[in-house]
Specification:
Order of helices and strands: HHHEEHHHHHHH
Number of helices: 10
CATH class of the largest domain: Mainly Alpha
Number of domains: 2
Largest sheet: 2 strands, antiparallel
Strand content: under 5%
Distance between the termini: 58 Å
CATH architecture of the largest domain: Up-down Bundle
Number of strands: 2
Shape: elongated
Amino acid sequence: MVNKTGQQSQHARVKHEVGLRIIRGVYPSGDLLPHEQDLIATLGVSRSVLREAMRTLAAKGLVEPKKRVGTRVTERDRWNLLDDDVIAWHAKAPERRKDMLRQVVEARRMIEPSAAMLAAKRRDPGGIQAVSDAMQGMIEAGTDLQAYLNADIEFHRSIYRACGNELIGQMGEILLGALRISHAVSSRVPKPIERSLPLHKSVANAIVRGSATTAYRAMTRLIESATEDLRATLGLDTTGAKP
């Protein structure tokens, strides 16, 4: 008998395997998934585990179960592309990775410079302190790349929150999962911390000083540097994404 922890582990595995196959096109949009009994045999799980995984995938917009018909893979425009799992599956799928990261670059260019500009304009004391603290966390990470990347995410989160616009703040929170994947790829270049830390400092300093235009430009330079790193590591073509 499988205990609750074991069921949760099996559920996560089935969700991941089926979700990744959908993202990769092994199970194409519009097609029915294999019959339930076939999936149970292929994946080696119980009916209850499989059905729970299907409910999770349905909540992410990837599948739609119908009685007496089966479970159909939905069209891509119904997928929750900002869901953390869906983002991670795109990153693991060679067929999808570049396009997903290109779209992350485009979204960052639209949102982050404006968020930095607003944070500098409004200079909310709590927001300024959060940006400063996050910057200090990046500095204190030293040469520990994972600690640095975690602090980097907190730095961007602090700017989304400091901008004083709740809509941008929520859009930023949604973008953070994709940003984490982008950072993991772009940090494969030689000396990633030495390359990016001064650019982050420029953004933080401009926000703390209340220099909105400088903050906008500094964030733009930071994004373009990260984009160059993506080009270097993946051959990513983002030239058409520039405004």
